[in-house]
Amino acid sequence: MDKIFVRVFLSVFVCAVGFGIASQAKAYELIRQERQEIASQIQDEQQKQEEYENRKEYYNSDSYIEQIAREQLGMIKPNEVLYINRGQ
Description:
By secondary structure, this protein is mainly alpha-helical. The chain is 77% helix and 0% strand. The protein contains two helices and no strands. The protein has helices at 2-59, 62-71. The model has no long low-confidence stretch (mean pLDDT 90).
């Protein structure tokens, strides 16, 4: 009787440990996937931030300001002559 009890107890114990390990492995895999997704999102956001910084630098540059002044405001530099083609 004692041998049967020990075998049953060990079988139940091994099954319980097996289920515990399986559930922990599944939880670990879910956390690992979530961590990868977050790392990817961080990388995307860092790339966007770098693009915005580059745009900010360009918008603050003298060449961009001159381009806007010429194209949108019709400004010219001193001693320049502006030609207007009315045929278009």
